[in-house]
Amino acid sequence: MPSVDVVIVNWNGRRYLPACFESLRAQRGVDFQVWLVDNGSTDGSVAWAQAHAPQIRLIANDTNRGFAAANNQAIRAGQAPYVATLNNDTVADPRWLAELVRALDENPRRGMAAALMVFADRPDMINSAGIAVDRLGIAWDRLGGQPVANSETSATPVFGACAGAALYRRAMLDDIGLFDEDFFAYLEDVDLAWRAQWAGWDAVYVPTARVTHHHSATAGEGSPFKSRLLGRNKVWLITKNYPLPHLWVYGWLIGLYDLAGVGRALLNRREPSALAGRLEGWRGARRMWRKRQHLVRRRSAAQIMSRLAPVQSPQQVLARYRHLVAR
């Protein structure tokens, strides 16, 4: 049995598959099986994969089931002790997977490992060095926009791993559950990381596991589709996971910052999708509240709060994403 099930979710990303698969063929130091889950592509992705990568396990959906559900399909079908998720628009360095496996092998309490993701057109700039979440429930790609030289050089504890290039321990997934399929796409990895933190699992950033990434190649950065899902899923993320005693303290500030974010989208970009996403999130909040009753809790609310980044000014929050807006 392979040590790792590598899962790639694809939706009309045929142009990226050759480079991604070639980088996987170059992986060294670990035995793995590749799974391609296609979400109803119409660009010939499935036919290309069948012709050029017959060794992979292929799951072809008739429709776009979303990033979360598609990953879960392959996770359930596989049996390896580790599961890697990799975006179709990435190119992994030859030691990417082996370095992630080594990091989890070092400590049985590490449930996930995050890779160093860099931009394809700016390989000297960090795209993600793991997930960070602050006390307002705002999540972002840690060190995003900073020079690669600013990254740590050894394994570093983080809140979670970006699912664009992550490794998960199957025992952790068996313990806390898989990606929440209601999220469809975006922030599902943050939700998983938060549930893992509650359950006592740790996450680590591995700077020696490097991946080059075409950021938001599928949905497009700032697209109405992505904006709506981010707005909706943020409401669900906080409803499901935020430590309840502290929510009464920070709730008003969470609402104030979120209202400012929606107002900025409406005034500056004339974009109503951010508001539509929040409204959709509140309509589904009761369902998410029921899900929080099933959280595996081995850490206290105070311990979870200690792992959240401090509140920053609105200007500092905006600065976290400035490199994405500029691009």
Describe what this molecule looks like in 3D.
With 327 residues, the protein is α/β, with parallel strands linked by helices. It folds into two domains: 4-213, Spore Coat Polysaccharide Biosynthesis Protein SpsA, Chain A; 224-326, no CATH class. It is built from 13 helices and twelve strands. The strands form two sheets. Strands 1, 2, 3, 4, 5, 6, 7, 10, 11 and 12 form a ten-stranded mixed sheet that branches. A two-stranded antiparallel sheet has the order 8-9. The model has no long low-confidence stretch (mean pLDDT 95).
Task: Please tag this protein with its features.
327 residues; alpha/beta; Spore Coat Polysaccharide Biosynthesis Protein SpsA, Chain A; 2 domains; two-stranded antiparallel ribbon; 41% helix; globular
Compact description:
With 327 residues, the protein is an alpha/beta fold. Helix content is 41%, strand content 22%.
Present the secondary structure layout:
Layout: E1 4-10, H1 17-25, E2 32-39, H2 45-52, E3 57-61, H3 67-77, E4 82-86, E5 90-92, H4 96-105, E6 110-119, E7 122-128, E8 131-133, E9 139-141, E10 156-158, E11 165-169, H5 170-176, H6 188-198, E12 202-213, H7 224-241, H8 244-268, H9 273-283, H10 285-292, H11 301-306, H12 314-319, H13 322-326
Parallel strand pairs: 1-2, 1-4, 2-3, 6-12
Antiparallel strand pairs: 4-11, 5-12, 6-7, 6-11, 8-9, 10-12
